[in-house]
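A reminder before we start the practical. When you read a complex entry, don't treat the lines as separate problems. The point of joint prediction is that each chain is placed relative to the others, so the output describes one connected object in space. Small molecules and nucleic acid strands, if listed, are placed in the same frame. In the example below there are three entries. Take a minute to note the order of the lines before looking further.
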Amino acid sequence: MAPDLAAPRSTLSLQAARFAGNRLAVVSVYVLLAIVALCFLGPYAFPFTGQDADFDNISAPMNLWSAHPFGTDDYGRDLLVRVLEGGQVSLAIGFLGALTAGVIGVLYGAMSGFVGGRTDSLLMRTVEVLYGFPYVILVILLSLLFGGGTVALFVAIVFTLWLTPAVIVRAQAQSLARREFVEAARAGGMTGWQIVVQHIVPNTVSLVIVYGSLLVPEVILSESFLSFLGIGIKEPQASWGNLIQSGTAQMDTDLRLLLLPGGLLALVLFCLNFIADGLRDAFDPNER
Amino acid sequence: MIPFVAKRLWNGLLTLAALASLTFFIMRLAPGGPFSRNRKISPEVQANIEAAFHLDEPVVRQFARYIWGLMRGDLGPSTRFRDYSVNDLIASGLPTSLTIGFWAILVAGLVGIALGLAGALRRNGWTDYAAGTIGVIGIAIPIFIIGPLMQAYFSVYLGWLPVGGWNEGWRSLVLPVLVLALPNIAYISRLTRSSLIESQRENHVRTARAKGIGPTRVLWGHVMTGALLPVIAYLGPACAALITGSILIETVFALPGIGRFFVDAALNRDYPLVMGITLVYGGFLIVFNILTDLVRGWLDPRVRHGT
Amino acid sequence: MACETPLTQMNANLLSLRDLSVHFAHRGGQTTVVDRVSLDLAAGQVLGIVGESGSGKSQLLFSLMGLLAGNGRASGRALFEGVDLLSLPPKALDRLRGASLSMIFQDPMTSLNPYTRIGDQLAEGLIHHQAVPRAQALAEAVRMLDRVRIPDAARAARRYPHEFSGGMRQRVMIAMALLVKPKLLLADEPTTALDVTIQAQVLDLMSEIASETGTAILFVTHDLGVVARICDRVAVLYGGRIMEDGPAETMLTSPAHPYARGLLATTPRMDDALTPRLPTIAGTPRSGGAMLPSCPFAPRCGARLPACDTMPPLRPFGPERRLACHLQGET
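Here is the predicted structure of the whole assembly.
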């Protein structure tokens, strides 16, 4: 191994610099921010909402200089506004879902890892059993249990996705608890709580960020997948999943209805994946 | 080795029991019943139907009846397809799902590992970039976008392959298998590449190189085992997930497999069918998890010895 | 710069390093970790290379075995029985590695293949290089395991590395390296990871078997106690350069270079039990960076002279000794 020659710098600034050096990831951040801004601000530029039908312009074709730049669907609803509004739902569920699942997972995993003993084996046995469940099936069943709709979908996705962060954080917490510097801190008279705050948490943060960034696309994908199947978010409320589904139904006559929501979803997923890759490389350069 | 297998089997059974119970109560607690859609039926008819399906009994009784049926391998009658039992429906749909899943996992495993190897052994060569591109596309573009696009191009525009259905032999298989395999090719090739690169950096591989046994023997004798372990750990659950992934594929390509039955049953509150298919999926997942552990235990003595 | 120092009996040596340098390329340019090292090692001799961590001593061994990391490059010459190891094509190098040239690594916990039985790992080299049938190779492996005093060797050969302690694994490594009866053994801090009590046993075992097979050892360590135990000659490395070398006895009793003296002073001694505090060498070791024209030890040196801004050449100093220090006239 070549010795590390860089002048000593704080780990965080080093990681930030490494991330900034990844052009693809940086561009992805900007593209993603642009899409988020577009989805949440864009609809205000139009005098109608995505649920208002324009009966004079049913199934209007694409015409960038008309009132409906990307045309309308077969109810006369503006396609662009619908796609942007659908994006609001998909993105909000994606980020909030990943955050919630991440927080639950971290707390559960940290608790399991620190307390150890009986509690740990009980908590982890629970996770193991849940891991044995087929993921897609569980999401579908849970969203049925909570009566369908946005909230049910959210709860179902969070309920199934907190497992991985929990397992990862537990493993990290356990290995950290055995490390020399923690022992040194203990020998130096720090209390358990001080050790957790000053040594353990900072050392799991990078891991949580990396896996959290992977959770976001997973949640978005789950949402659109369920909505596509007709189990998640239902008409007339738009989401990328159900827009793609209705686009598929008409793809032999009009590909536009599929390509606009599909393209935007794919673009967001591309960006999120590149960002996750960039974060992983920045925080854990040995991976490559 | 025997306690190793026994422990896995016991855990699997536990998971399956938990899954069966959870499914049962989720379906009972979920709002709406199998017959609540038919508003017109009279209370007497409703009562008759509920009696026929034992829905009038206390939940605990229903649960006991259900578990008793399970132990005899009887999943009960379907509430939607009145003349069929859940066993019949699963028996009719499973072959389709398994056929697609089998070919998809075969294609994904072979192509994925091959691309990953090529990428790792010739880093930054053209195969590496090709594999990287396929990887990014396969991971970022969901099945339900790629599937319809492929249908639009190969079936509607070129007219080479059927849009969907299950009546044209191998031609019906091509698109579903391809679309189902693609994201897995992506995952497997990425995983193979990174774990092979990592494995090449292990200290014991350096020891092997120092023995002067040549790069080929170093690769197959010392790098490969360590590199394939994570891939195998992924492949096991992925095999089960491919059968699960067929939910989308079967919907997109209108195939008569159990995935489509499941969505149908879930939307129509066909409790027995939902539960039956859930258990089939769960069973597959457990079996593949055990197989994975066995292969890992066979390759890695540390897993086998439980350290 | 040409070869700095004429060395005696050029051709009688098993290994002759001439201006051996190791560089690592990285984003900011190139780092030299070993700088123009010239050394000789006669057959059957034990040469210790002593230095702190980061002095480039491990990389020196890796360069001889062709095991440098992807961004590493070695220049100069390393003649092994007259053949330059550095310019050897990979196939030719593989005929030497694990046959007449073998190596023991620093970390016994990770240097054995966790997926393969110990016996097979030992036998592999014999089967490959000497075309010994598998059964016979395994029998020889068992004999060798017994020789390094692994209890119940026949059974141990069928076990996996994780079933052994660190000390036992390092014995396995030694058995593996010496099984092929190499002419030269490269040992990279083989005892650093072990308990002190086990260190001595392992060292004695190693030198015992090596002297039986007539194997020369190039022994890299930071521990002067280890040097005293087994080495015939010692070279002190600092910042990738040789500061001083000579016979082990004189080097350990009367080191001339300020760094070598410091190193000796920081080594705990049994007869010095009353010393209240072990002395240290002030400052931190230089690690890498562009090679400076000055003596690498100058920033930490207590006897620094104005002349130390230039690197002193390595000059003969007393019988069979060499020294690179501007102070040498005064001492």
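Discuss with your neighbour: The two ends of chain C are 27 Å apart (CA to CA). What might explain this?
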